Amino acid sequence: MIEREIDIAIIGGGPAGLSAAIAAKKSGIDNILLIERSESLGGILNQCIHEGFGIEIFKEALTGPEYMQRFIDKVEQLKIPCMLNSMVLDINKKKDIIVCSPEGLIKVNAKAIVLAMGCRERTRGNICIPGTRPSGVYTAGCAQNLINLKNYMVGKRVVILGSGDIGLIMARRLKLEGAEVLAVVEILPYSSGLPRNVVQCLEDYDIPLYLGHTVVNIRGRKRVEEVVIAKVDEKWRPIKGTEKRIECDTLLLSVGLIPENELSKMAGISLDSVTYGSRVNENLETNVKGIFACGNVLHVHDLVDYVTLEAELAGNSAADFVRGELRNESNIKVTAGNGVRYVLPHLISGKNDAKFSLRVMCPDRNRKIVVRDGKKILKKIPKMRVNPSEMIQFNIKKEYLEDVKELTIEIE
User: Fold this and answer.
1) Strand partners, 213
2) What CATH number is associated with residue 358?
3) Residue 345, preceding bond cis, omega within 30 degrees?
4) C-alpha closest to that of 127 among 246, 251, 247
5) Which of 132, 136, 150, 187 could form a disulfide with 214 if both were Cys (CB 3.0 to 4.6 A apart)?
6) Which stretches within 291-381 are classed as H helix?
7) Mean pLDDT confidence for 320-334
8) Domain range for residue 403?
9) Would the pLDDT of 328 be above 80?
10) For residues 176-180, average pLDDT
11) In 340-375, where do the E strands start and end?
12) Are residues 203 and 156 in the same domain?
């Protein structure tokens, strides 16, 4: 087995991995290795040919490939080594990585690791839709890959379950390719995608959105022939007598994303029960010293710009760790309070300005984000609108965090 000594190993060559690698390199670390299982860099954005990327960072609307090419060009310019077609098989607390590559099995001994593996889609098996098992059932991302990269049309009469952003974007994409999108079905009483996507992808194309509904049956022999949808009650249980049959040949599933944390588990990293991502401190360091996490493997983002900014912090933190300059004094616990689904980071030191990311439980207007230490309110941040599909980020200066014992962040 080939062995290599590396200062920083980055697992994943998508938006997070590329940004972390660039940041680490600019921080003065030269011995970096980027490991990517696909044959090219860029990750999921290679198949996202719609516009809307880069507005926060570049102040212009780019397609996914255009956005990623800027970072790929930078990686090449900085001469950061990349291993493509290389699959990480194992990782441990000692930061040893076993990689299956075109060169054979390689053992990478790293001083620091940045986890940037992204996320995967929930499938039919994850949500247990009853019915037959015909062809014509795809995840939305799989359909996007087939249409945009392989020039394969997945169907002509389509129903989409779930109103996440990928599902909404694919509704528009299928419509533009000549398919009839019969319905987007969402179990929640509100869309789980960004409001702008609801308008631009559904309303602008007269595609019906059924809120408070779900698919209760799939019928068909060789190919999907119809799906049955029904209203659900407040506990998401189908209501008898509300069934509606829709004849179609294709069902797309846009029912959520799950961080790819199998490697994290191998390394003994603690995971959050809500995000399914790693528990991290303000430096994005996990409970395993020297292993950092960023991007969708940490928590699912709505904007790739936020992934990039988060990954830059991870790359800089990993560089500081390698140099022995990273302070690890994060002992102030941060918890999600009333109305907040989750908040990151999980731990802060109180000695630096802190940046938080959170998602709320349900949509609302004219609310306040309240940061408190016990009964003491440290800060209130007014919000005209809050929505579970939109990640909220805010900063708190270290002056507010003096003598804080535990932070709770909630919606008021």
Assistant:
1) 231
2) 2.60.40
3) yes
4) 251
5) 187
6) 304-323
7) 91
8) 330-412
9) no
10) 96
11) 340-344, 347-348, 354-360, 364-373
12) yes
